[in-house]
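Each letter names a residue; the fold follows as tokens. Both lines appear below:
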Amino acid sequence: MNKYISLILFSIFFVACSNESDLDMNILPDGKYPITFSADNLIMPVSKSFDENGIAGVYMHDIDGVTIPLSENSNRQYVYSNSQLRAALDDYRRYWSRADQEVLVTAYYPYNSTMSGSTFEINDLSNQDSPTNYDNFDILHVSSSVRFSERKTTVLAFDHLMSRIVINLTGSNLANVNSVRIANTFTKGTVNITTGTVSGGANKKNIIANKYPDDSNTYRAVVIPGQTITAGMDLIYVTTGKNQKTYKCTLASDVTFEPGKQYTFTLTIN
């Protein structure tokens, strides 16, 4: 479950004889070797292909912090199109400058314009009823160092930062299901791109789960990891019929949600 996406980073490496002296001096010609991203077989956690024109946020800096300082390469937009991830603006494009250069690449999806430094806020997880809302909350992240000298394809494998709950409904009363909700979980949190973590601790309320597009009896929702639902607490509410009858799923033992993990519950509604 942890790794749904692969992002391939490679350097275009065509070295002519006239450039051998540059390599010997360890200095590469300006603008000659772009740091280029390519995406292959990107499968989103919602069981569909990577969105055309979808935007990821990318941080990139030299390991020594000199050639490509982080302050000039924070939260740059990279657009997915035709299996390529390209800088949204020419000013965001960066080039290899030394043959021994090592670059730290940190990326996340989907892009968030409210980033402050290396963090942004999750303000309200409560409504995941639409696929778009669900997708926006299922945050993916990767951080890896890449060397120019490797001259090979480097796969950046994204992890899910959130936890996911899946509810499978069975029984004779499924046609009358009005809603499925996740109870007693945080709906606000903070995402830290540097550490690749999500922290919560405020505003517990119900989360409206999203119905799988291809399965009318299965629902899903992402929740903030690190929180514990203790034994005896309600976790899932299923509301049915005109009279809004509610079925409750109460935990028999403690559950602590871990990032990148899925928790599946099968409930019988009769």
